[in-house]
Amino acid sequence: MYKDVIAVRYLEGHKLELVFENGKKGVVDFYNYIKKGGVFGRFSDMEYFRQVHINKELGVLCWPDGIDIAPEILYSEATGEPLPTTYILKIILSPLVYRFRLTLPDAFRSWANVPFEI
Q1: What is the pLDDT of residues 96-116, one digit of tens each?
Q2: Are residues 36 and 12 in the same domain?
Q3: Which of 27, 75, 90, 108 is deepest in the core (most CB within 10 A)?
Q4: Do 72 and 110 have their domain in common?
Q5: Tens-place pLDDT, residues 38-55
Q6: ∠35-84-43 over CA atoms, to 5°?
């Protein structure tokens, strides 16, 4: 289970200090998000980046135009704790579900029965 972000503070560059609902806090450097491109390319504009705010209803960091980042990812990056297993499975299975239009049980069966070659 992920923890909501309850406070954010700009530090320097692309670094933000995050505080989570369980009291844990840490620093996340968003510079690497710029390298991912797409919507995260907007983070190179520091005026835009500093418009970060918390969606109190969802407990996530948001920027104008609807950009947000999953709190599971932020929690893991800020605290060094591993991502929840269910989130990792979601990342692995999502392409199968989308590409082959599988239901979740089918995705598990297909994933388990795929022969792996080295």
Answers
A1: 555 555 555 544 545 444 443
A2: yes
A3: 75
A4: no
A5: 899 999 999 999 999 999
A6: 20
What pTM does this model have?
Answer: 0.70
pLDDT of residue 111: 47
**Which range marks the domain in which residue 13 is found?**
5-79
Tell me how many domains the chain contains.
2
Residue 7: left if φ>0, alpha if ψ -120 to 50, beta else—which one? beta
Q: Which two tokens stand for residue 52?
A: 């970060």
| pLDDT given for residue 70 in this prediction | 82
